[in-house]
Write a structure and sequence with these properties.
Layout (H helix, E strand, L loop, with lengths): L28 H11 L3 H8 L11 H13 L5 H10 L1 H6 L7 H10 L1 H5 L1 H11 L7 E10 L7 E3 L3 H30 L7 H51 L24 E3 L6 E5 L4 E13 L5 E7 L8 H12 L5 E4 L6 H4 L8 E3 L22 H11 L1 H7 L2 H15 L10 H21 L12
Parallel strand pairs: 1-7, 7-8
Antiparallel strand pairs: 1-5, 2-3, 4-5, 5-6
Helix pairs in contact: 1-3, 3-16, 4-6, 8-16, 9-10
Length: 467
């Protein structure tokens, strides 16, 4: 009688391939990660691992650990516990680790310890993309996206609420001390002199510590206010000096009164300025996609037009994009060795200083000076449409056929890269806290994105590992 189903029995014996690479299909990205990482210069990481003091268990191979971390970001496995589970359950990960199984503590510690070095691999991977012919370097598009911080916005407190909370904590501490005066004799009678359960002192210490953290938050917000006023004063002074220089060059007497410049020493935080106790470096920002206020960072990308390869990446605490254009194109120049010919950005990057900067004179910029909604302090751009000669010239430039054609490419270049990071790679929240660590993690995420682009090149990666 002909069988209609295949036999499926756990009692059936099988032979497992002796070579780890035979466990995974030849077209699987794990093979690609294995080959690429072997070709990277990891000498700094190797040297730090080699300097481990004698004694104790030897370290896991640092090259293997880098493969594990990068593969995790590529496949949306950023949790160290999930990576540990994958070393037992995922054949691709078992291949990359040669079936060694670092626990989640080891994985988390390695990633924390070498976060900076791994983030710098973006430059090496970008060079591989150039060699593979998927980078043009002539036209780039810039954009930012709000990425959630590893903190809840409910752990933030506004400046005007801080004194009220401190007063409430002081009242609670006084009440607990009064209660202690009653409880002490009772506990002395129950436990003996000098002994007590110490529940009330713990409550007092907890509230006192909370009060100290609020005081630190007030100090940080005042410092931010001084920095904000200092920046505004410097910008106003620079604009005034430029106007005076133009008048003198034209042979005219400087017009108008000398303006008053804000004094940073007198700066005070706005009542609604926020401080987050979990990640003080993060900010409450308006997410343009959801129109909701979130605790986040503003993650920036510069993307090449040919294959959406990321040229440069950075993270800022500023919700507004205006001040990011020059630093991003400066980083692009470092990566490419030159400035791109054409730069595309949305209205958030427009300012007279940006489009007239001598540093960007070689770049043909297309940035609309458009009108946006109120709420600049939370991430929207200025409330009024920019005026002035430069805004007028830019509008005319974008109305032309060349301007319309070039600017129409912006969305197709940079926004898919952001979408792929958030949807395909599933990266929507940072794992680390603090601006430096978050910036490093964003560069690692960008490295994973570029690795995926490189993986999809028909000729694939063909470099041999270093000899």
């Amino acid at each position: 009688m002909r069988k209609t189903t295949l036999t499926c029995s756990l009692d059936q014996l099988v032979l497992v391939p002796n070579d780890f690479r035979d466990w995974v299909h030849k077209d699987h990205p794990a093979h690609f990660i294995d080959k690429v990482v072997d070709a990277l210069d990891l000498s700094r990481i190797r040297a730090r691992c080699a300097n481990k003091p004698r004694g104790g268990r030897p370290r896991y191979c640092p090259v293997m650990m880098v493969k594990l971390v990068l593969y995790g970001y590529l496949r949306n496995i950023t949790s160290s516990r999930k990576l540990e589970a994958a070393t037992r359950e995922d054949p691709a990960v078992r291949m990359l680790t040669c079936d060694s199984r670092p626990d989640h503590t080891t994985i988390a510690e390695f990633r924390r310890q070498f976060l900076g070095e791994i983030s710098k691999l973006l430059g090496q991977v970008f060079r591989m993309c150039e060699e593979a012919g998927i980078v043009e370097g002539e036209t780039v598009a810039i954009d930012g996206s709000k990425v959630l911080a590893n903190a809840s916005k409910h752990k933030a407190m506004s400046y005007d609420r801080m004194p009220k909370k401190q007063a409430a904590l002081t009242g609670e501490i006084e009440r607990l001390y009064d209660e202690a005066d009653v409880v002490d004799p009772q506990q002395s009678a129950k436990y003996g002199d000098g002994k007590r359960e110490a529940e009330i002192p713990k409550d007092i210490a907890r509230r006192a510590k909370r009060g100290d953290r609020i005081e630190e938050g007030k100090r940080v917000l005042k410092e931010r206010a001084r920095e904000r006023v200092q920046a505004a004063s410097d910008a106003k002074r620079q604009a005034y000096d430029s106007r005076v220089a133009r008048d003198k060059a034209a042979g005219r007497k400087p017009r108008g009164r000398k303006p008053k410049f804000p004094d940073p020493a007198q700066a005070e935080p706005e009542p609604k300025d926020q401080y987050n106790f979990t990640d003080p470096d993060s900010r409450i920002m308006l997410d343009g996609a959801t129109k909701a206020y979130v605790q986040a960072y503003n993650a920036q990308l510069v993307v090449d037009q040919k294959a959406q390869v990321i040229v440069a990446a950075a993270v800022t605490q500023q919700a507004n994009d205006t001040n990011q254009l020059i630093p991003l194109l400066r980083a692009t120049k470092q990566r490419l060795g030159r400035l791109p010919q054409i730069g595309l950005g949305d209205a958030g990057y427009f300012s007279e200083e940006n489009v007239t900067s001598p540093e960007l004179a070689e770049v043909d910029l297309y940035i609309p000076p458009g009108r946006t909604k109120p709420g600049a302090e939370h991430g929207d751009q200025p409330k009024r449409a920019p005026k002035g000669e430069q805004a007028k010239l830019m509008r005319e430039k974008l109305k032309g056929e060349t301007g319309r054609q070039r600017y129409s490419r912006r969305k197709a270049i940079v926004e898919p890269a952001i979408g792929q990071i958030k949807e395909q790679h599933g990266f929507r929240r940072f794992s680390f806290r603090g601006i430096e660590k978050v910036d490093a993690e964003w560069n690692i995420v960008s490295t994973a994105h570029n690795l995926w682009k490189l993986f999809r090149v028909p000729s694939r990666f063909s470099a041999a590992p270093p000899g």
